[in-house]
């Protein structure tokens, strides 16, 4: 138990440092975008295009012009600050949920199950908020070519997104089919590993 807590503390400390690196990268992208003569990038993810594209929903209130784009970059920075904070809280919840889940496998009790479910709800809420802030933030104009920490971060995000879905689906089926427990645990550990790596990757730029 003590080793798990020490490992979690180490990961949280490293994650906080990595988030500072992410903030630095974001600020550089915003600065470069402000100097670009182009208002919108050629490629945007579906959620960003739906909100912030040429005919996005937000264009009813914020027409596409340079002044509004500067305001959007401020919104982007705020949303990514929330993304970072929610991500760290979600990671802490994942670690706590993993500790409680491990105890449940060894010594099941209704109290542990209730705690595990409460943590699961908190993690799901935190994860949804974290993902929403990233997927709906106004897009930067400058996207770095080639290999980058941000691209690895996005690839790992796909892994832990699928893992979150799988963990929740298997978790709800365990009561009817206890044989799914090993698969649930394996998917959960993979999800936490991918989520942790997606944060720590910003230490290596």
TrEMBL record:
Highest taxon of the lineage: Bacteria
Residues of the signal peptide: 1-18
Keyword Transmembrane: yes
Transmembrane intervals: 82-105, 125-143, 155-174, 186-204
Alphabetical UniProt keywords: Membrane, Signal, Transmembrane, Transmembrane helix
Protein name as it appears in the record: Cytochrome b561 domain-containing protein
Organism: Runella defluvii
């Amino acid at each position: 138990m003590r080793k798990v807590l020490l490992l979690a503390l180490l990961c949280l400390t490293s994650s906080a440092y990595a988030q500072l690196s992410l903030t630095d990268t974001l600020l550089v992208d915003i600065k470069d975008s402000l100097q670009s003569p182009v208002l919108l990038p050629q490629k945007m993810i579906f959620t960003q295009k739906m909100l912030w594209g040429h005919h996005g929903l937000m264009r009813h209130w914020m027409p596409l012009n340079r002044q509004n784009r500067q305001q959007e970059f401020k919104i982007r920075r705020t949303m990514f600050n929330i993304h970072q904070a929610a991500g760290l809280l979600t990671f802490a919840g994942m670690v706590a949920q993993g500790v409680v889940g491990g105890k449940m496998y060894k010594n099941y009790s209704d109290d542990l199950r209730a705690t595990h479910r409460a943590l699961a709800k908190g993690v799901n809420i935190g994860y949804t908020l974290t993902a929403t802030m990233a997927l709906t933030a106004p897009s930067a104009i400058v996207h770095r070519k080639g290999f980058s920490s941000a691209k690895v971060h996005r690839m790992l995000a796909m892994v832990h997104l699928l893992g979150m879905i799988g963990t929740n689906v298997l978790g709800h089926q365990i009561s009817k089919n206890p044989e799914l427990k090993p698969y649930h645990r394996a998917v959960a550990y993979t999800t936490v590993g991918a989520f942790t790596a997606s944060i720590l990757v910003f230490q290596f730029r």
